[in-house]
Amino acid sequence: METHSFLTGQFLLALPGIGDPRFERAILAICAHDEEGALGIGVGDTVEGLGLHELLEQFEIEPGTAPDAPIHFGGPVEPRRGFILHSTDWGGQDTVDVAGRWGLSGSLDVLKAIADGTGPSRYLVALGYAGWGAGQLDEEMTRHGWFNVEGNSGLLFDTPAEARWSTAFNTAGIDPSLLASRGGTA
């Protein structure tokens, strides 16, 4: 019997020399991974010059009590589509529970709740995502490029975006400055 390990609820860390400039020093929160494919949200980089207030105003939502939080670059697929990773103390019409570690929502109800102070206690907003077709991520995990670590809400919500990649490696007991930029051939 084949055992299969899916990565939902984990973080994927781009190894140095991944070979795709869009993913250099990337950290992706894997929100779905099964036989049909995978979806990850980038949480290590923010969109320059765009904050939550401007995003809310684009949807004609009054910012209310929401801080003008940075917007994350979620990935190269559908870069105008928004996703909110949030604490599990809130759930809306389309919220997906991600391995009991965080929620993923993508509809306006979560933005409205954040603006009026009734939303999740902790959250981050991202535009775009990274996606893989059936078996694609499984195949990529057999080659040099990605390293996975256990997902945790502290890294997601309590660590600044620019520090998440190195913090995740350090949490796994790895000094990222010692990583080689390419795999060996034994």
TrEMBL record:
InterPro entries: AlgH-like (IPR003774). It comes from the Bacteria. This is UPF0301 protein FHR23_000230. GO terms for cellular component: cytosol. It holds the Pfam family DUF179. Belongs to the UPF0301 (AlgH) family. PANTHER family: UNCHARACTERIZED PROTEIN YQGE, UPF0301 PROTEIN YQGE.
